[in-house]
Amino acid sequence: MIVRKRCVKNENGLAKGKEYGCNMEGNLLVVHGGGPTAVLNASLYGVIREAQENPDIQKIYGAIGGSEAILAENFLDMGALEDEKIERLLQTPGTAIGSSRFPLEQDQYEAMVDIFKKNNIKYVLFNGGNGSMDTCGKVSKVCEGEGIYVVGIPKTMDNDISIIDHAPGFPSAAKYIATVTKEVGADVKSLPIHVCVIEAMGRNAGWITAASALARKNPGDAPHLIYLPERNFNEEEFLEDVKKLYDELGGVVVVVSEGLRNEKGESIVPPIFKTDRAVYYGDVSAYLAELVIKKLGIKARSEKPGLCGRTSMLLQSKVDREEAILVGREAVKAAVDGRTGVMVGIKRKAGEAYGIETPLIPIEEVMLNERVMPENYINERGNDITGQFVRWCRPLIDGDLPEMVSFKDEMEQTLKSRI
C-alpha cells in the first residue's frame, strides 16, 4: 500500500504554502493534446519563459508525444535548450514537443501520480481543446491533495471550447480562410464562368467557415454563400441559391463546413471508412461541386485547404500569437499560486477597443462541452452569417485583410464610353 503525504489547502483550494508542509519547489511538465495550430508553440514559449522567471520551478519538462508520453516518462528538459531555439518557437508551426489523441483509462490516470512524484513534478499543464481539457480534469482529480497542481491552457483552431470568448489557434485559422476566400474570389471574378466550393474545417462548429466572410469588402465580393453545420443543409435551397447568383454574377464562391448535415442529422456525404473510434467521410466540397454540375449544368470545382489552414505561419495572426503566449504564462502563474483543476480563460473586455482578461475557469465547466455558433450569428435562410459575427471576429485577425486593387469604376466608365 502506498501512503502519500497530503498537502493542506485553504477554503479556496489554494495550497497554504511551505509553512503548512506544502513545498512549492519542483519541476513543471507541459503536455500538448489534439491537433496542432499556428500558435501552439507560442503558448509553449509563454510557459517556458514564465517558468524560467519563477524560482519555485526547477526543471521545465515537455512531454514528447502528448499524454501517452507521461506514462512512458518521455520528458525533454526544455529549460536546458539554447535560447535561440526557444525564440524560434514563435515562428514554428505545429507543436515542437508532439501531440496525441491517446485514450486513457482510469488506472493510467492513477499511475500518473507516482510518475509525477518520481520526477518531482509539482506543476502539470495541459494545452489543448475539449478532449485535452477532459484529460486535464481527470488528471487534476487523481492529483487532489498530492501537492500536484494541474492547469489547462486553451487551444483549438475550431474555436469550440465552451465558456471562453475564443481559443488561441482560431484567429490564425480565421485569417487563413478569409485570405484564401478573398484570393479565390479574385480568381473567380476575373474569369466568371464557374462555381467554386471551398471546404473549411470544423465538423460540428462553423466558426472557421463563418470567418470566410471577413474576405468581403464591397457588395458582391466573395464568399457569396456560407453554409454551417449548425443548420440542416437543404440541397434544393442550395441549388436555388447557386443558380440565382450564377445568373447574376457569372461566378460564385461558396464556403461550406466539412460537417454539413441533412435534416436527419446525417452527413450529406456517405462514410467511406469506419473504425471502432471514428467514421471518415468523403469531401463535402467535391460532393457539392459535382451536384452543381449534374443538377445545374454549370461548371464547378472544389477546393479543400484542410491542414494548410491549421498551422499556416505565413498568415499567423499577431493577436493570436500574443494571446497564446499570455495564456501560457498565466497557466504557470496559476499553478505556482496553488490553483488546480482550472483552465485559463479568455474574456473580452467591454467597450469598443479590443482587449481581453484571463480569468481562471473551473475545469468541470469546460470538459467536453462543445461551443457552437450562436443563432444570432447565422442569417435566417442559413446560407450566410450576420454582421454581428463579423464585428466580433474582425479584431482577432489584426484588422482588415490586405487590399486588392480594383479598376471596377474605370472599367465601367470605359465600357459606357463605347456605347
Could you name the key traits of this structure?
single chain; Rossmann fold; 34% helix; 15 strands; disordered N terminus; 2 domains; 4-stranded parallel beta sheet; 7-stranded mixed beta sheet; 419 residues; alpha/beta
What does this structure look like?
The protein is built from 12 helices and 15 strands. Strand 1 (26-32), helix 1 (40-52) and strand 2 (57-63) form a beta-alpha-beta unit. The protein has helices spanning 40-52, 68-72, 83-88, 106-118, 130-142, 170-190, 207-211, 235-249, 284-296, 318-336, 387-393, 408-418, and strands at residues 26-32, 57-63, 75-77, 121-128, 149-154, 195-200, 225-227, 252-257, 271-274, 279-281, 300-303, 342-344, 347-348, 356-357, 360-362. The strands form 4 sheets. Strands 3-2-1-4-5-12-15 form a 7-stranded mixed beta sheet, with helices on both faces. Helix 1 crosses helix 10 (318-336). With 419 residues, it is an alpha/beta fold. It has 2 domains: 18-157 and 315-365, Rossmann fold (3-Layer(aba) Sandwich); 170-309 and 372-397, Phosphofructokinase domain (Rossmann fold), CATH 3.40.50. Helix content is 34%, strand content 16%. The model is unreliable at 1-6 and 12-21 (pLDDT under 50).
Could you give a quick summary of the protein structure above?
The chain is an alpha/beta fold. It has helices at 40-52, 68-72, 83-88, 106-118, 130-142, 170-190, 207-211, 235-249, 284-296, 318-336, 387-393, 408-418, and strands at residues 26-32, 57-63, 75-77, 121-128, 149-154, 195-200, 225-227, 252-257, 271-274, 279-281, 300-303, 342-344, 347-348, 356-357, 360-362. It has twelve helices and 15 strands.
